[in-house]
Protein backbone atom coordinates (compact mmCIF):
# COMPACT_ATOMS: atom_id res chain seq x y z
CA UNK A 1 0.00 0.00 0.00
CA UNK A 2 1.12 3.50 -0.72
CA UNK A 3 0.45 6.48 1.52
CA UNK A 4 -0.28 9.57 -0.55
CA UNK A 5 -0.51 12.90 1.22
CA UNK A 6 -2.16 15.70 -0.75
CA UNK A 7 -1.26 19.25 0.28
CA UNK A 8 -2.73 22.43 -1.12
CA UNK A 9 -4.04 25.81 0.02
CA UNK A 10 -7.36 24.57 -1.44
CA UNK A 11 -7.59 21.94 1.31
CA UNK A 12 -8.45 22.76 4.94
CA UNK A 13 -5.63 20.42 5.97
CA UNK A 14 -3.37 17.87 4.34
CA UNK A 15 -5.19 14.68 3.36
CA UNK A 16 -3.50 11.27 3.44
CA UNK A 17 -5.07 8.43 1.49
CA UNK A 18 -4.05 4.84 0.92
CA UNK A 19 -3.65 3.50 -2.58
CA UNK A 20 -3.08 -0.08 -3.60
CA UNK A 21 0.31 -0.21 -5.27
CA UNK A 22 0.54 -2.17 -8.47
CA UNK A 23 -3.02 -1.61 -9.68
CA UNK A 24 -1.75 0.83 -12.34
CA UNK A 25 -3.91 3.72 -11.12
CA UNK A 26 -2.71 7.18 -11.94
CA UNK A 27 -2.31 9.79 -9.26
CA UNK A 28 -5.24 11.65 -10.82
CA UNK A 29 -7.46 8.55 -10.55
CA UNK A 30 -6.58 8.20 -6.86
CA UNK A 31 -7.31 11.90 -6.27
CA UNK A 32 -10.68 11.64 -8.02
CA UNK A 33 -11.57 8.48 -6.08
CA UNK A 34 -10.95 10.33 -2.79
CA UNK A 35 -12.56 13.59 -3.93
CA UNK A 36 -9.31 15.58 -3.80
CA UNK A 37 -9.88 18.83 -5.77
CA UNK A 38 -6.94 18.36 -8.14
CA UNK A 39 -7.23 20.40 -11.35
CA UNK A 40 -7.43 18.51 -14.64
CA UNK A 41 -8.85 18.97 -18.10
CA UNK A 42 -7.82 16.49 -20.77
CA UNK A 43 -6.76 13.51 -18.58
CA UNK A 44 -4.42 12.55 -21.42
CA UNK A 45 -1.16 14.35 -20.59
CA UNK A 46 -1.54 17.04 -23.22
CA UNK A 47 -2.81 20.15 -21.40
CA UNK A 48 -0.62 20.25 -18.27
CA UNK A 49 -3.43 21.42 -15.98
CA UNK A 50 -2.79 18.52 -13.57
CA UNK A 51 0.89 19.35 -12.94
CA UNK A 52 1.85 18.52 -9.35
CA UNK A 53 5.03 18.48 -7.29
CA UNK A 54 5.77 14.99 -5.94
CA UNK A 55 8.19 14.33 -3.06
CA UNK A 56 9.07 10.92 -1.63
CA UNK A 57 8.45 10.75 2.12
CA UNK A 58 10.66 7.73 2.73
CA UNK A 59 14.42 7.59 3.13
CA UNK A 60 15.11 5.56 0.01
CA UNK A 61 15.50 6.04 -3.73
CA UNK A 62 12.23 7.12 -5.37
CA UNK A 63 10.35 4.45 -7.28
CA UNK A 64 8.17 6.80 -9.32
CA UNK A 65 7.85 6.04 -13.01
CA UNK A 66 10.03 8.00 -15.35
CA UNK A 67 8.55 10.81 -17.41
CA UNK A 68 6.44 9.89 -20.41
CA UNK A 69 7.19 11.69 -23.66
CA UNK A 70 3.99 13.71 -23.19
CA UNK A 71 5.13 14.78 -19.71
CA UNK A 72 8.54 15.84 -21.00
CA UNK A 73 6.99 18.06 -23.64
CA UNK A 74 4.20 19.55 -21.50
CA UNK A 75 6.36 20.18 -18.41
CA UNK A 76 9.10 21.81 -20.50
CA UNK A 77 6.60 24.08 -22.26
CA UNK A 78 5.03 24.99 -18.90
CA UNK A 79 8.44 25.91 -17.48
CA UNK A 80 8.20 23.28 -14.72
CA UNK A 81 11.37 21.47 -15.78
CA UNK A 82 14.33 22.59 -17.85
CA UNK A 83 16.00 20.54 -20.55
CA UNK A 84 19.04 20.23 -18.27
CA UNK A 85 16.94 19.04 -15.31
CA UNK A 86 15.24 16.49 -17.53
CA UNK A 87 18.57 15.17 -18.81
CA UNK A 88 19.97 15.02 -15.27
CA UNK A 89 16.95 13.04 -14.10
CA UNK A 90 17.52 10.55 -16.91
CA UNK A 91 21.27 10.26 -16.22
CA UNK A 92 20.75 9.73 -12.47
CA UNK A 93 17.77 7.43 -13.13
CA UNK A 94 15.56 9.48 -10.78
CA UNK A 95 12.12 10.89 -11.49
CA UNK A 96 11.93 14.72 -11.39
CA UNK A 97 9.71 16.43 -8.80
CA UNK A 98 7.17 17.91 -11.25
CA UNK A 99 4.79 15.40 -12.77
CA UNK A 100 1.44 15.24 -14.51
CA UNK A 101 -1.06 13.54 -12.20
CA UNK A 102 -2.77 11.91 -15.18
CA UNK A 103 0.48 10.20 -16.19
CA UNK A 104 2.06 9.38 -12.83
CA UNK A 105 1.49 5.74 -11.82
CA UNK A 106 1.24 5.23 -8.05
CA UNK A 107 3.96 2.94 -6.71
CA UNK A 108 4.55 1.29 -3.34
CA UNK A 109 6.01 4.35 -1.60
CA UNK A 110 4.84 7.21 0.56
CA UNK A 111 4.64 10.49 -1.35
CA UNK A 112 3.65 14.11 -0.77
CA UNK A 113 1.69 15.67 -3.62
CA UNK A 114 1.59 19.47 -3.67
CA UNK A 115 -0.76 21.34 -5.97
Structure description:
The chain is of the alpha+beta class and 115 residues long. It has one domain (2-114): Beta-grasp domain (Ubiquitin-like (UB roll)). Helices cover 22% and strands 21% of the residues. It is built from three helices and five strands, in the order E-E-H-E-H-H-E-E. A hairpin with a 7-residue loop joins strand 1 (2-7) and strand 2 (15-19). The relative contact order is 0.30.
Characterize this entry briefly.
22% of the residues lie in helices and 21% in strands. With 115 residues, it is an alpha+beta fold.
For this structure, the CATH topology is: Ubiquitin-like (UB roll)
Write the element-wise H/E pattern from the N-terminal end onward. Answer: EEHEHHEE
Helix content: 10-25%
Summarize model confidence as the mean pLDDT: 89
Find the CATH superfamily.
Answer: Beta-grasp domain
Give the tally of β-strands.
5
Strand order of the largest sheet: 2-1-5-3-4
Low-confidence stretches: none
User: Pairing-aware structural class of the strands and helices?
Assistant: alpha+beta
- Relative strand content: 15-25%
Largest sheet composition: 5 strands, mixed
Assembly status: single chain
Amino acid sequence: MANITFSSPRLKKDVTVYAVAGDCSTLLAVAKEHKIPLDFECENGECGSCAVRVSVLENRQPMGMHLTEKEKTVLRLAGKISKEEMQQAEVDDLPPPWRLACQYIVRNEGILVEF
